[in-house]
Specification:
mainly alpha; two-stranded antiparallel sheet; 3% strand
Length: 185
């Protein structure tokens, strides 16, 4: 997800009007602002947290190539199986002039390296490692390759961007956001 995204997170409660109950409505059955899933609207339920996340996201992308930003967000969304964010970021990438060929190859970038610059490949590898950090940590060789392509400030921003998209993915997934909708509009 990106800045200005009205997204939601779950707290295990269902809000209907002004009444909050402890019951959890099954996904896809509610009538709330969280996409009709019976889950909370994160931006409304935790506005300070939401604004902080939007600010973190905006700060993370500062100074980074917009095409690289979208590639990172697309790859993390693939790995996290977040259709909501994947749809949003592939559309954003298209609007920014990204080619269909490259968008189709992000998921298999290792087999289609010629579509991506060495710098983009290093960012995609780092995105995978950080997104899957529980599997094997962030291997030294992956980190070193990224550090060879980005100065310290850029690398800090790339890492922050990877952290924010992983957070947005988890927010969207835990609130059952519906792909094909974009609440920024």
């Amino acid at each position: 997800m990106t800045t200005n995204t009205n997204t939601a997170a779950t707290t295990g409660t269902t809000t209907t009007g002004a009444t909050t109950t402890g019951a959890v409505t099954p996904a896809g059955t509610g009538g709330d602002a969280g996409g009709g899933t019976g889950r909370i609207d994160f931006a409304k339920a935790a506005p300070k947290v939401f604004r902080a996340l939007v600010g973190f996201d905006a700060a993370a992308r500062e100074g980074l190539d917009p095409a690289l930003v979208e590639l990172i967000q697309i790859r993390a969304s693939h790995l996290n199986h977040c259709a909501y964010c994947l749809h949003m970021h592939t559309n954003d990438a298209r609007k920014a002039g990204e080619s269909e060929d490259r968008l189709h190859m992000v998921a298999v970038w290792r087999e289609a390296r010629h579509f991506f610059t060495p710098k983009e490949q290093a960012a995609l590898a780092l995105t995978e490692a950080v997104t899957r950090v529980a599997d094997a940590g962030v291997p030294d060789d992956v980190y070193a390759e990224a550090a060879a392509h980005f100065d310290d400030a850029e690398l800090g921003h790339v890492l922050a961007l990877i952290l924010t998209i992983n957070t947005w993915n988890r927010v969207a997934l835990s609130t059952a956001k519906v792909s094909g909708t974009d609440e920024r509009r």
